[in-house]
Amino acid sequence: MKSSTITPPRLLHVCRLDDASAGAAGSLALACLAEYGSAENPAFMADLHVLAADLPRPVREAAARARLDERKHAVVFRGNHIAGDLEPTPAHWKTADTPSSRRYAILLALYAGLFGDPIGWAAQQAGHLITDVLPVAGMEESTVSSSSGRELAWHTEDAFSPHRAHHVGLLALRNPDQVDTTIGYVDLPRLSAAALETLFQPRFEILPDDSHEGADQAGGEPTPLLTGHPEAPVLRVDRDFARPVAGDRGAAAAWAELTANIDNSLYGLAIGPGDICFLDNRNVVHGRRSFLPRYDGTDRWLKRVNVITDLRSSRPARPSGLSRIIH
């Protein structure tokens, strides 16, 4: 999967924090850590929006402006402080809730509170609200974020579900090789009228990705890959886990055109230590370039959170064996 030689538009909002703002945000996270102990504490989540209002004004202003931009790709907050006492990058996400990293899980949650409500999946990383992205030995060629040698294919986060996140937040603790997060979008003028019409029709299947342990891989009801207004559609797609309905030649042609279109729009964004990036999961896909892991404690390590802008409207109508919204 190679990005186009044509320079694509990068609809990014970038907020560069000065030392005072970064220090204030870090102090707020430490105070919350002392009071609540963890981002997973239900009392912390209940108070999240009130607490997030104490983030520095430049952060709140940048988040407010970005939320009003319905066509944005992402908003990036640069300059948050990462202390020198951070533990080595863990060998697995199961051991990634380390004492020094908890402040950053809380910091990411506080920023997320400016965009909506964090959610988690019962079938993914034991239902944690703040999850970890790091390379795991033996999973180098897998299709999930624990991979490294294989490029993580572009996707809408949890595209299989109507209850997927509106924003995906990433906080980089380490990224020594400046490995790019990839971002892609649909270049509408380059789609044929026939493909565009087909993509708005329920002629495709999207399976849960392999990070959802025990999920049904049989596929659900056929779904469109684009919804909403034709000039600014909501995107729902996964390079590895979406497919046209079997035997539908028109859907297969539209799928081939869409994947080529997104492949050509793909660009890289290196998220460095202290950067917090919120990707708009309705407008863009994201993935990650391949890299060579060290497994010596210095590897790339990100904290991740999924955010819903309106928790009530996103609750399943009835309990599902596949997912659980946690708040």
TrEMBL record:
Task: Specify the domain of life of the species encoding this protein.
Answer: Bacteria
Alphabetical list of InterPro entries matching this protein: Clavaminate_syn-like, TauD-like_sf, TauD/TfdA-like
For the ligand (Fe cation), the binding residues are: H155, E157, H286
Which residue intervals define the domain TauD/TfdA-like in the entry?
142-305
Specify where the region named Disordered lies, as residue ranges. 210-230
> What sections of the protein cross the membrane?
none
What are the record keywords, sorted?
A: Iron, Metal-binding, Oxidoreductase
Which GO MF terms are attached to this record?
iron ion binding; oxidoreductase activity
The UniProt similarity line reads: Belongs to the clavaminate synthase family.
> What is the name of the protein in this document?
Arginine beta-hydroxylase, Fe(II)/alpha-ketoglutarate-dependent
Source organism of this protein record:
Paractinoplanes atraurantiacus
